[in-house]
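Dear colleagues,

As part of the handover before I leave the project, I'm documenting each prediction I ran so the next person doesn't have to rerun anything. This entry is a single chain, and its sequence is reproduced below.
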Amino acid sequence: MRQARLNKELTQQELSDKCGFTKSLLSKIENGHISVALATLSKIAENLDLPLSWFLEEKEEKNLVIVPSNKRVIRGSSDEIGYSYETLANFSRFSPIEPTIVTIDPDLERTEPFTHKENEFIYILEGKINLNYDGSSFLLERDDSAYFKGGKPHIFLPANEEKAKILTILIQTQN
């Protein structure tokens, strides 16, 4: 991330100002001292003109990517975030879609909505969530799905005392 920022000739302060968070937070992210939510990484990616997958995948470009379930890496698991996520077989670091499994901890403390530039498709794999989207709340259960513009404030909140797993696909839009 630091190299991408330097390639754009931005200081930490300039990038953190563009993203709307503190220089201290950006420094902790760059140095790997904290786990961050996808929406935070998305905001950084947007301000560096990079796809979100650029930060999530460190694999070389291939024509076929197969990721066995026992080889997926779970990231972002933190009491502070309440979400963990697993990237799924991203075809390319520059792919216009980014499939991920998000797990929502029932003890999630964050309730402030996120925004990001990508559209988002979600499919509930396990459990129940409340999708708070642009001021409205929607209860989604296993096998329910939704598709929405990420630029509107949204957040997935636990609907009960059980974890929920969501397949989420971020889809880059053309400007």
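The longest helix spans residues 38-47. The mean pLDDT is 83.

All the best with the project,
I.
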